[in-house]
C-alpha cells in the first residue's frame, strides 16, 4: 500500500501536517448520538429526548414525537398561557390573591406548609412559586384565574397539539381531558414540542419580548438541583422546569453552553426506579444528558464544528 508523502519543510508543510492531525482528531471525536444513546438504552423505562443547539442547529432526537406524561413540567406552558392572558388584559399579574385553607393541596411547594390561610400575594408571585418551587397550591391558584382548558387551546393554536394541562393538581375531578388524565396524569406533551417552545421563548417570540424575558427570569430561578444542574459547573446559566411523579421524571429548558444556548428536553415514564431520592434513575438520566450536552457544545463558537 502506498502512502502520500507530505513535505513537512517550511510553513506550508507545517500547516498541512496540523490540518491532517486535526482531521484525524475530528474523525475520532464522539458524536452527540454516540454519547447519548448508551445512557438512554441503559435506562429502565420509556425515554424521549430532544436537543437542539439554537446557534448551529445541530440536534439529537429520540422518540421525540411520542406523547409523554409531563408531571410538573406542564407548569411551563401554564406560565406561557398566563402571560398571554396578561398581555391581552384578560388577567392582571398584579391582582392580589387570598390563600384559603381549601386551596391547599399536598406535594411540592411552600404555600401549603408555610403560609397561613388568609395570606395575600400578587398573581405574578403565584406564577413564580409555580415555576421556582413547583408549588402545587400556587399552580391551582393560577389555573383558577386562567381556566384549566386555556393552556391546551393556546398551545394548539401555536402548533403544539400534544401539549395539554389536564386538570388542577391533585384534583383529577377537575379534568377537562378525562381520558388523557387517566393515561398521562396532570399534563402531556412531546419532547419535540417542548424544545420548540423553549426555542421560541429564547428568541423572545412567545407573547412578547418583554413577557418572554420575564418568563425566562422565572425559569432561571428553578430550584431543582437533581436534574439538569447536578453535574454542571455551579455558574452555568440554565432556564428550565422539571417534573416528578413516582414513575416519571421530566426536565426541559435552555442550557447556556460554550457555543450558545441549547434547548434540551428529557422525558421518562414507566421507570423501574420509583424511589424519591436525588439519585433515582430518572433524575440521573436528566443530569447525565445535561452533562453530555454541556461538554459536547463546550467549544467556543469560532471553534465549533459545522452543523450536521
TrEMBL record:
Q: Does the keyword Metal-binding apply?
A: no
Q: Which UniProt keywords apply?
A: Signal
In alphabetical order, the GO MF annotations are: beta-lactamase activity
Q: Which reaction does it catalyse?
A: a beta-lactam + H2O = a substituted beta-amino acid
Stated EC number for the protein is 3.5.2.6
- The source's superkingdom equals Bacteria
- Which Gene Ontology biological process is one annotated for this entry? response to antibiotic
Tell me the ranges covered by the Beta-lactamase class A catalytic domain, including all copies.
48-268
Tell me what this protein is called: beta-lactamase
Species in which this protein is naturally found:
Singulisphaera acidiphila (strain ATCC BAA-1392 / DSM 18658 / VKM B-2454 / MOB10)
Amino acid at each position: 500500500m502506498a502512502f502520500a508523502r507530505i513535505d513537512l519543510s517550511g510553513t506550508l508543510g507545517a500547516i498541512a501536517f496540523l490540518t491532517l492531525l486535526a482531521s484525524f482528531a475530528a474523525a475520532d471525536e464522539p458524536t452527540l448520538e454516540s454519547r447519548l444513546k448508551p445512557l438512554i438504552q441503559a435506562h429502565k423505562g420509556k425515554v424521549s429526548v430532544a436537543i437542539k443547539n439554537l446557534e448551529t442547529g445541530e440536534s439529537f432526537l429520540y422518540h421525540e414525537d411520542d406523547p409523554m406524561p409531563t408531571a410538573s413540567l406542564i407548569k411551563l406552558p401554564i406560565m406561557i398561557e398566563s402571560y398571554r392572558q396578561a398581555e391581552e388584559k384578560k388577567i392582571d399579574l398584579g391582582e392580589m390573591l387570598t390563600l384559603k385553607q381549601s386551596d391547599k393541596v399536598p406535594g411540592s411547594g411552600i404555600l401549603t406548609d408555610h403560609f397561613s390561610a388568609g395570606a395575600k400575594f400578587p398573581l405574578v408571585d403565584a406564577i413564580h412559586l409555580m415555576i421556582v418551587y413547583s408549588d402545587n397550591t400556587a399552580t391551582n391558584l393560577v389555573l383558577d384565574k386562567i381556566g384549566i382548558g386555556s393552556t391546551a387551546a393556546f398551545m394548539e393554536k401555536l402548533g403544539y397539539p400534544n401539549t395539554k394541562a389536564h386538570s388542577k393538581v391533585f384534583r383529577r375531578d377537575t379534568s377537562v381531558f378525562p381520558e388523557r388524565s387517566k393515561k398521562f396524569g396532570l399534563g402531556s406533551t412531546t419532547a419535540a414540542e417542548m424544545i420548540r417552545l423553549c426555542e421560541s421563548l429564547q428568541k423572545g417570540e412567545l407573547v412578547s419580548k418583554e413577557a418572554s424575558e420575564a418568563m425566562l427570569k422565572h425559569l432561571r430561578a428553578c430550584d431543582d438541583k437533581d436534574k439538569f444542574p447536578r453535574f454542571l459547573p455551579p455558574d452555568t446559566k440554565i432556564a428550565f422546569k422539571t417534573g416528578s411523579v413516582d414513575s416519571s421524571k421530566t426536565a426541559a429548558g435552555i442550557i447556556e453552553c460554550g457555543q450558545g444556548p441549547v434547548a434540551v428536553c428529557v422525558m421518562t415514564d414507566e421507570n423501574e426506579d420509583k424511589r424519591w431520592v436525588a439519585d433515582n434513575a430518572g433524575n440521573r438520566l436528566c443530569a447525565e444528558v445535561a452533562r453530555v450536552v454541556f461538554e459536547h457544545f463546550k467549544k467556543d463558537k469560532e471553534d465549533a464544528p459545522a452543523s450536521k
